[in-house]
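User: Can you write out an input/output pair for a complex, sequences first and structure second?

Assistant: Here is one pair. Inputs:
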Amino acid sequence: MDMDIIIPLLNSILTGSLYSLMALGLTLTYSIIRFPNFAHGEFITIGAYIAVLFSIIIPLSSILNLHPILTSIIILIISAIITGICAVVTHLIIYRPLINRGSKLVYLMIASLAVSIIIRYLIYIFVDIGRTFYKLYLFNILPKMYFGETIKIAGFSLTPLFQVSVFATILLVFLLQLLLTKTKLGKAMRAVANNSQLAAISGIDISRITMLAWFISGSLTGLAGVLWANYVWATPTVGQKALLSIFAASIIGGLTSFSGTVIGGYILGFSENLLLSFLNQWFNVSLSYKPMVSFMIVVIVLITSPKGIAGINLRKIILKIRKR
Amino acid sequence: MDIVGFAISFLTFYGIYLLLSLSLNLEYGFAGQPNFGKVVFYGIGAFTAGILTTRITLYLFGIHLSPCDLQARIMLKHIYDENPFLPLLLFILSIISAAIVSGIFGYLASKPALRLREDFLGITLLSFGEIFRIFIRTYYPLACGPYGIGGIPHPFNFIDNYRLKAALYLSIIAGIDVFVFILCERLANSPYGRTLKAIRDDELAAMSLGKVVHNIKGEVLIIGSAISGIAGALYSHYTSYISPDDFIPVVTFTAWTMVILGGTANNFGVVIGTLIMALIDRATALLSQVVEIPLEINYLRWVFAGILILLFLIYRPQGIFPEKPLKTPALKVGKNEDIGAKKYFKIFWRNKGSR
Amino acid sequence: MKILELKNISKYFGGIRAVDNVSLKVNEGSITGLIGPNGSGKSTLFHVIMGILKQDRGEIFFMGNRIDDLSPYDRFRKGLVMTFQNPRLFYGMTVLENSLVPPKNQLGEKIWWAPFKFKWIAQELGFAKKAYKILDFLNISRISQNFASNISGGQMKLSEISRALMAEPKMLLLDEPAAGVAPKLARDIFKHIVELRNEYGLTFFIIEHRLEILFDYVDWVYVMHRGKIISSGRPDNIVKDSSVLEAYLGE
């Protein structure tokens, strides 16, 4: 198979998987709090730097004497949990008081911008401390993690990062789906997302469910952030840079649909890699235009179907075509 | 420590930002249109000024070089020195064209503003800001890509005294600020301002009471964008060199903090709010020169600003100076029916045919 | 003669027929009532007449002209004004300011003239005095300087009505003008309505639930149930109509 297709193809799947995880976090919180959280990207950065912390600064590999893959998995889990906790904390200190005071949507969005700035610059300070006091260059760094060896299947070279990412995505999406559909907790979450007043009357503890949703959202995104940092290297702005793509993925799912978001993540992954490489080879479109791809998608989706894929009513479309 | 120099540069920075915050107050505080893309119109104004000035000069003098060329910039500097009034003329041209071009884009931006829900609109405009920056950065022929445009003339290039040059420029900015402030105040305290507030408070009711909402939204965004464009042009000619990375979402965020802090729908409040945020910005810059802190104080400043705005959003969302009733005659009618009737008696008598 | 005529108006929401093939006429200078149990589509019908919702089928005629493809602000210009069940006041402004929004052809509303006070100040004064007079007529002039968010529910209703009157309407659509208001005040409101009709020839089309008050003041009544008009006639005939009784009790 043509080398020019294989690498973008594999990158599409890798990127798409990670985008799906990150966008799922966004969709999860949006369905509950009902405003776009512009600080969501920072969870990626938090996850990334926690991995940096435990793989380079205070390397767990030297503290625990375990198989390197196991250590890396432990780092993944720790990053996920800490990011999840951070997410819950931001909700408790900032978003909940605002929502309880009946803050306007616009102000909630501004607040999320403020949160993203605070988190990002705190991370800058962290990196700066590393530079001045510990002589470490953390502005652009690859976490030291080990996920196994490259596997070759049918001419495809699957890197260890690829293996972990795809595996993690499949596993987590499956678990999340299971949680939402089969468990009482998950059903309660869907009820709150659907109609919070009705849910409250039915006896569901909104506050607890919301915190859980934030925790899951934060940990999914943080975990994906670790893997993403292994792909594009960790910088204090790594999350902010990915934010647009994640929003695009979530918008494809109308900001509320689970499956739509996953599909969206892969659409983004493929557009940014395979599609762009195609445009680059055949139409000389510069690869630096990558962020434009996500924006174009946002524009197209919002113009044609603001509710995303979930809003596409196949019956209506078929009826319209029949009328002509 | 050069206090006068610091004051002039601080006030210049303040004056330019005041245009951004006053226009945002008009768009959001009065008309309820959340402009999350403020930096775009600022940037369009700045780049219009930069591209136009450099290219026109090169064209007029028959130099067939791109303004991105280093050699072209050297030649531009030479031309500006030789022709003392050229920079001034170019400056006036810049301001006008920046206002027009930004205004046009403001009108275009009002179209999605009509159709999209607030949260989607916020996402779209914010993303558009980033796309604008990336596009300028990537498409080299337009504005020299990541290297930005240099060689933008200072209108008072012919003056050698650096201090005088800066002071004169500041007085121009001050003049524009006063004009824009008076304009915004007059627009706000008039039936037009009332219509804006009506649209802000209840669009549906405003429409049912005869207001053509989509036209008015367009008008407001055109004016707001034109003012932002002028601010951009002022910035270009002040720094003489602009790059796409000067125009990041943080600019939009800063304008919003100035409005929220000072008080939405209160122009005087916005003047104060802008001052406070500008002080925080420049004071920390000053502090880092004076005090020896091992860390980059810039980062702390942003954390502090973020926390400040969150505190206001939670505890005093109306800002320091809350909205006041419109200063039209309606304020006085009712309090005291006799409103200096002698003064307006003749006119009123002529227009007596109300019911 | 008919000031308002609806022919076969229907409005669907998905599968629900909120308004189902409604035809009716309102005579000029009349006080006409629209009653029916909750959810029968009365408010929806008003929204369609005003143009806030677009009808799926049917035509609307106002003063002989078709208006169903006009936007709400064009219908307003023709003299059709509506008040809402839950008052849609402009809560960031004072009561008096609210009343100053409707008057047509205000020079100061044009962006070109707005910065020049001398151009519109006389007009503005005139409107302000008229607004104050109307507020006085409805006995709420003392709250004219209050922010619309800072008054009682009953005062909000009255403010909305006075605002509607500022528009020099030909016909007023009032959606439950006396809802949540004390009975004496409700009767006062209706007495004012009759006064306005008698003095200025305004037409009123009123949705109201308090039939015991409404029936004392209306000339004609339409009854809606599940989106359809099930009965119409003079108040004293409607009370005898069994289908109306069934509709209300059946709910």
